[in-house]
Design goal:
It is built from 10 helices and 12 strands. With about 280 residues, it is α+β, with helices and mostly antiparallel strands. The chain has a 7-stranded antiparallel beta sheet with strand order 5-4-3-2-8-7-6.
């Protein structure tokens, strides 16, 4: 546990005022509260400033600054909170398979958490974009596992030791989310992956605007100029945004992310024409 972590400030920020103990009920409640409060977003990357992953920087950005972040940020903050609450947390890394063809190899660019409890181990992850989990799932393979939003399941990867694939159920179909092993990761592992994700020209976070946050009865996502509000029944309301100001207003209204005029021009304006052309396609 980091001595610099301010548990009171964190819990106040996510609106949690319940018991402080390393129990399953507390894990579920804190996971849900953070997922609904802290948005997934990549504005720092688009500003060409690789995110800092030390606890002081994360607290300054997310808790004091009211921002969000991508997996290395929001799950690092979540892990620090669980440490402070007394949980036994192992930090892991996964290979994203979401919307990726089966024949395309991917690197380890996603952070997730493995939490040991008296009831058995659980998988926790408050930072995977538009399908971020809103609750932990028991580490049990081959069965449908409930969360406050979509069901999940874990499948072992044939021929690989302690390697698994997380899937999400959308309607009647299962889709892969990521694959991961149980090898504990160090801060150096995350620094390397964070640098690639935040700076490589092929990284989706360098090219595209991504913001997402679940609400109790729906999910809201923003991809470039496309704002989608999707209900629990799967029905989606899609709005195409046509200007920097419309995008900035959507960030403020749906994700509580507020950009100054200078930030709008520096972060959003240089990409707008490219994002528009993608929406047109």
């Amino acid at each position: 546990m980091s001595a610099d972590f301010d548990l009171d400030a964190y819990l106040g920020h996510i609106g949690y005022s319940g018991e402080r103990a390393p129990t399953l009920d507390v894990l579920k409640a804190v996971h849900y509260a953070q997922a609904l409060k802290v948005p997934f977003e990549n504005l720092t990357v688009l500003a060409k400033s690789p995110p800092k992953l030390d606890i002081a920087s994360l607290q300054s950005k997310i808790i004091e600054g009211g921002r969000g972040g991508y997996c290395f940020e929001v799950n690092a903050l979540f892990a620090a909170a669980l440490d402070a609450l007394g949980f036994d947390v192992t930090r892991l890394m996964g290979r994203v398979r979401w919307k990726t063809p089966a024949d395309i190899a991917t690197g380890r660019t996603h952070m997730l958490l493995y939490v040991d409890l008296p009831e058995g181990p659980y998988l926790a992850d408050a930072g995977f974009g538009g399908i971020t989990m809103t609750g932990p799932i028991p580490f049990k393979t081959g069965m449908e596992l409930e969360t406050p939003h979509e069901p999940r399941r874990l499948l072992p990867i044939n021929g690989a030791v302690d390697t698994y694939e997380l899937q999400v159920k959308l309607g009647d179909s299962w889709a892969p989310v990521y694959q991961f092993s149980l090898e504990a990761q160090s801060s150096a592992d995350y620094e390397l992956s964070n640098w690639y994700t935040a700076t490589h020209p092929d990284s989706i976070f360098v090219q595209f605007l991504i913001a997402a946050r679940p609400e109790a009865d729906r999910r809201v996502t923003l991809f470039n100029t496309e704002l989608t509000v999707r209900g629990r029944d799967g029905a989606a309301d899609v709005t195409i945004l046509n200007s920097v100001d419309e995008i900035a207003d959507a960030l403020a209204d749906h994700f509580d992310l507020h950009l100054s005029s200078d930030q709008r021009q520096a972060i959003l304006a240089p990409h707008l024409d490219g994002w528009r052309s993608l929406s047109a396609d």
